[in-house]
Amino acid sequence: MSTIPDTVTEAEVLNQLVTAEQPGFSTEAARAILGLRFSPVAISRMNELAERNRQGTLSEADRGALETYLRVGHFLNVVQAKARVCLSATAEAGN
Predict the structure, then answer these.
(1) Cβ count near 38 (within 10 Å)
(2) 16 within domain boundaries
(3) Higher pLDDT, 74 or 60
(4) Chain-wide mean pLDDT for the chain?
C-alpha cells in the first residue's frame, strides 16, 4: 500500500529528494550553495509583488511571478538546509 498522498506538494517532493539518506554535498559545494542569494533587483521585485498581493491589486500574471519566486525561495531554503547539515557533519567528523 502506498503512503504517498494523491496530491503532492513541491515541498514534499523536495523533502524526498534532499534527505539525510542521500549523499551530502562536498564542503566546497555546500559553501557555494550557502552563498546563493537573490539579487537586489529580484528582492525589490518580490517585495513589490508581496505588497501588491497584500493590497489585493496583483494581476494574474504577477501572481504567477510571485508564486514562482516563492517556489524557488522554498527550494533554495531546502537545499541550503541540506548544505548546513553537510557542513555540520563534516565539522563533527573533523573533531
Answers:
(1) 14
(2) no
(3) 60
(4) 86
